[in-house]
Amino acid sequence: MKKILLSMLISSVAIFALPNNELELIMVSKATQKKAVVLSNMKLTGEVKEAFGKLYDEYQLKLMKHRIEELQLISHYAKNFKDMTDANSDKLIMEWMAVEGEELALKKEYMKKFKNIMPSVDVIRYFQIENRLQLLREVQTSSKIPLAMPSSAK
């Protein structure tokens, strides 16, 4: 489970500070790689590229909060997946839906902000790129997370 948590953290980080240790160095490297992929696929120039980069960094920092919440949910799940009760399953479902809802609200907020600096076709392109990267991360993570096992105390 530690490998799952580490791979989730590394693949979802957007920290823009000087690294203090090896993990932070890896995290900064992944965030830099992601930004490079996004920028190269956006094909923006001039002032739009500069404005996009600033807004992108702001969005990624806020998105990181949701990635951390996902990690916390996975950590909680990792402790209980072999013995899931209805009560802890319900709690996990509600927390998961809350995190998903908050992330959707964040996406809506930033879609509007991105539309203020570039055409809608570029906004949809950016979120398509972001979604593809998210799907890759989710496939890598979900393939390592075992399915829940019902509690034997029923």
Describe this structure in words.
This protein is mainly α and 154 residues long. It has one domain. It has five helices and no strands. The chain is elongated. It starts with a helix and ends in a 12-residue tail after the last helix.
Major beta sheet summary: none
- State the separation between the terminal residues, measured CA to CA: 26 Å
* Derived structural class: mainly alpha
Bin the helical content. Answer: over 70%
Shape, please?
elongated
Mean pLDDT over the residues = 82
- Name the beta content range: under 5%
Number of structural units classed as domains: 1
Number of strands: 0
Q: SSE order, as H and E?
A: HHHHH
With helices defined by DSSP (H or I, 4 residues minimum), what is the helix count? 5
* Regions with little confidence, pLDDT below 50 for 5+ residues: 4-17
* Rg estimate, integer Å: 18 Å
Name some characteristics of this structure:
154 residues, mainly alpha, 5 helices
Provide a compact summary of the structure.
With 154 residues, this protein is mainly alpha-helical.
Map the helices and strands:
Elements: H1 2-12, H2 22-42, H3 46-80, H4 86-115, H5 120-142
Helix pairs in contact: 1-2, 1-3, 1-5, 2-5, 3-4
